[in-house]
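Q: What structure does this chain adopt?
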Amino acid sequence: MQIASKTLHSFREQLIVAVLVVFALLFGFSAYIYSQISSISGINKEIVSVARDIPYEFSQVHVLLLKQEEILSALHDGLITAPEANDQSGELSKSLDDEFAKISSFQGSLLNSRWSAEREKKLFEQADSGLVFTKKSKSDFEQKFINFLAAFEQNDAASQMKLLSEAREIALSAYSRIDFLNKEFSQAADVYFLTAEGATDNLLRVSFIFFIIILLIISAVSSSIILRTAYSLKSILEGIGQFHAGRFRHKIVLKSKNEFGMIAESLNEAVVNLDKSLDEAKKLSRLVESSMEGIAVTDTEGVIQYVNPAWEKLTGWKSEEIVGKVTPRVLKSGKQNQEFYEKLWKTIKSGKIFRAEFINKRKDRSLYDADEVIMPLIGPDGKINSFAAFQRDITDQKRADRERQELNGSREAFIRNTAHGLRTPLSAIGYTFEILMDKVSELPPWTHQFLVGAREHYAWMRDILENFIFIQELTVDYFRRKDAKVSPRAELSAITDHTRWFAGSKNITFEWFNKDIPETLPIDRAAFIFTVKQLLDNALIFTRPHGKITFATYQEDNMLVLESSDTGVGIPKDDQPHIFTSFFRGRNAYEMKNVGMGIGLYLVKMIAEGYGGDVSFHSTEGKGSTFIVRFPLMKRE
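A:
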């Protein structure tokens, strides 16, 4: 319904815009008609003015010619002197030239007119012939004036009378010609006025007819649009009613491809997607309802809005008891402090997920351990509109962990106490072997072989015991000791010297390449020595006589690298994934009757990673192995 209302509102706006456009067009058309009429009226006034101004200027020419004749009469009658007559005649001549110039300018207006070219051409020719005639009359009159002055100086009365009569005839002839022009131009002015009125009337009639045609076209188009729009809106509203009733298989059918057709297609597509979303929502709802984890949804203020059956079973609270009424504080046991809850709210309100272990309280006030995940739910506006909490009962798991920790603690204590208890008698045995080896020359010959074998077994038991004790020490706190420090150059020199001597006794070549060894390394001395000895001892054990061991130490990427390569028996491909597993021994180790327990490389990996380093290797069976251990040069935080 809202979509239909918005569509109708949009249609009304479009209709209003269309009406405004129509009125704007009509206003523009009216303004154009008014401008055309004004233009016709202006031209009419201009032409009529010209048609009336030209006769007026010719009348002025006739007046000036009469004044010239009056000057001659006044000179003849002795009213003025000859110089005065000459001056006055000169002024009149200039006035005549000015009038002739005005008449010429009016002739130009006739030629620039937008009216009938034939009519203006005829008037122009008449004005031009009149102008030529009056100019000739002026010239003849000036000549008569000059002759009259000469006769006046000679006191020739007869010549003066004759010239005066001829001057009057020139003025009379000019008057006749000018009177004819006045009549012609007056008639032309009347014709112009009537023609302009007729043009204006015709323009108004054509404009009115055109205006009626525009209105009819606009009415027809508007009616068609309104009818089509009404039909489209009716179909859309009926379809929305069907959708509102839950009949999502209904489709709005509109053949038009206009905006309403697009709206109908969009609605049909939206309803199909909505139907699919509802199916998915139902599946999700069934999944949530059947989930083994307790799920609760709250609003942004923490008020519970939904809980699933698993949550009810876990807490003992029923949905109708808490939804819309209480917050998850009903589960608060007091085992978590205020700082814990402040961190929780700060995390989820910032849009992040909070996960922690809680000790909660059921409705019957019994306590249980829960692993909870609380996450914010984001609305369409991109803002948090609710929170979802998922909790799993881990009470049994926590109890089993505590029991396992107690058992491990007892076992570790037993191993630790046993190992330390065995260290003293083993040390005594070792001292005894050393004393006996010093006195071997005094003992029977067969005892030498026996003592050598017994001492090797003693050394094996001692190494096992030391490894057990070392494993007990490798805890998190061991790797975080701030005073851990070793001088790698001195320790490497001592270990490699011993390895070189022992390799020589087995006819094995040993080489050590060292470069940029740091003065100190933030690693416990015992752990560093154990790592280096383990790498080189393994190379010595699994390299046959005439083989070669290469040991390299260098810096790379702020790391000290220990790289041990040998040409020994290598590691079978099937054994390589397990090489760092505790108590694992490869197949060829058994074949060579190696007495190791398979925890050396396991401890090397633990030490390297404990200090922020790493360990890697590559090996080919029958060709040898290369082990690489890397320790950071700076202590990690």
